[in-house]
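Usage example:
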Amino acid sequence: MYQTILKENGLKATHQRLAILSEIEKYGHVQIETLYESIHTLYPTLALGTLYRNINELKEKNIIQEVHVNNSKVYYETIKEKHHHFTCKECGMIEDIQLDAEPIHSSVTLPKGSSVDRIDVMLYGTCDKCASH
Ligand SMILES: [Zn+2]
Ligand SMILES: [Zn+2]
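Running the assembly step on the lines above writes:
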């Protein structure tokens, strides 16, 4: 499946790119450090710089995207259908959530002359596991 997506976007379906995509998919949302550790287990010769270069290419082609938590941590995920996120303040887990952003869009007062082309909502809270501690 990723082979086709890569080719459609003019990228060669190299083993490394395929491994990167399937690792991201496996985690759902993953930080670069974690991704590097697990890719490194599969490809011990892969340098961090190469990983970053691949990540940037995949990002430019909109095959993966960044998810920002607390405006500091960056997670990567493969682009699926439009969704928003819930994150647990305690353990940091991130879940995809479905949310209708249209009411936000229609109720917001924007600075004069501005327009919105994307809404990403991040909900912060406590997950089931952490709540039952
Ligand atoms: Zn939690
Ligand atoms: Zn997501």
